[in-house]
Amino acid sequence: MDAIIIVLIILVVLVFIALIKTIQVIPQASAAIVERFGRYTRTLNAGLNIVVPFIDTVRNRVDLREQVVPFPPQPVITQDNLVVNIDTVIYYQVTDARAATYEVASYIQAIEQLTVTTLRNIIGGMDLERTLTSREEINAALRGVLDEATGKWGIRVNRVELKAIEPPTSIQDSMEKQMRADRDKRAAILQAEGVRQSAILTAEGEKQSAILRAEGESKSAALRAEGEAQAIRTVFESIHAGDPDQKLLSYQYLQMLPKIAEGDANKLWIVPSEIGDALKGLGGALDNFRPGTGAPMEKHPAPPRQQPPVD
After folding, report:
1. Under a CB-based contact definition with an 8 Å cutoff, are residues 64 and 93 in contact?
2. Which of 161, 189, 230, 301 is most buried (most C-beta within 10 Å)?
């Protein structure tokens, strides 16, 4: 009785194990390789799959999602015999699980070695300056070679990136000094351009100010001269309209003499020669009037001058 129970238990366990091996659940974006007696049979896709227990074997599960693999720095010699360390990052995706399983032993290691050799070939034809400034060109060339070589392995290389390019320490110091000198040069040039532009603007402003000032003074002088001319013209017309005689003019001339002598700084002033004529005219005017009456006096002929004796 006990032996029957033991056999039943063994059968139940075997049935349970067979069910486990028969039903295979593959997650999304994954695939599994099935072998029957060591030979490839089929590829299991995502979902519920049934295999023959104890005959079919799931050999490998492959992730079909895009993978990112960083590779350690690799020393590469440039065309001008300088050693640079280059870090690379590969973005790849498995498109054929069967080829990725049977065509290459380890596609990760194969991609790494292929990347190193391709980088040495590409960088070997460039100098250091071109290497530092041609990342896009290097990425495109590297991706083309890797995509062509890994196609038969069931792998598609989507992107290749150079994460870092590190030249030797001495070259880095020289580059930093050169960059510092270039920055100082650009700063000096910009400062000189600023000073030059400031001087030009200042000169233009002074020129424009002088032109405006000269125009203002010219207009002011013209208006002043026009006003003086108008005043002289008005006085002249008033004088001619009043028809003054020589006596009135002589009297006005005498009234202006004290004004000429005004001022503390006038220590010496010169009497013009015309004052004699003015005094004569004024004296004649006074002789024409009698004293006290204001009536004009009678004119008497002047006695004839006697000629002096001649010795």
Report:
1. yes
2. 161
The answer to whether residues 94 and 153 touch, using CB atoms and an 8 Å cutoff, is no
Q: Is 55 helix (H, G, I), strand (E, B) or coil?
A: coil
Query: What are the tens digits of pLDDT across the range 122-156?
Result: 888 888 888 888 888 888 888 888 888 888 899 99
> Which residues of the chain have a pLDDT value below 50?
286, 289-311
Per-residue H/E/C for 159-190? EEEEEEEECCHHHHHHHHHHHHHHHHHHHHHH
pLDDT of residue 303: 47
pLDDT value at residue 305:
46
- Dihedral sign for Cα 92, 96, 99, 100, please: positive
Q: How far is CA 143 from CA 27, 160, 184, in A?
A: 30, 6, 39
Spatial CA neighbour of 65 closest among 98, 96, 101, 92? 92
Instruction: Note the pLDDT of residue 296.
Output: 45
**What would the DSSP string read from start to end of 6-24?**
HHHHHHHHHHHHHHHHHEE
User: Can you tell me the distance from the alpha carbon of 75 to that of 82, in angstroms, rounded to the nearest whole number?
Assistant: 10
Q: Is 77 helix (H, G, I), strand (E, B) or coil?
A: strand
**What is the pLDDT, as a whole number, of residue 68?**
92
The enclosing H or E element of 3 equals helix 2-22
Measured CA to CA, the distance from residue 89 to residue 70 in angstroms comes to 4
Q: What is the dihedral of CA 96, 102, 103, 105, to 10 degrees?
A: 120
Residue 90: which H helix or E strand, with range?
A: strand 83-94
Please report, as a single letter, which amino acid is at residue 161.
E
Nearest Cα to Cα of residue 102 among 51, 153, 65: 153
Q: At 292, list the tokens.
A: 């006290």
Q: Are strands 30-36 and 83-94 parallel, antiparallel or unpaired?
A: unpaired
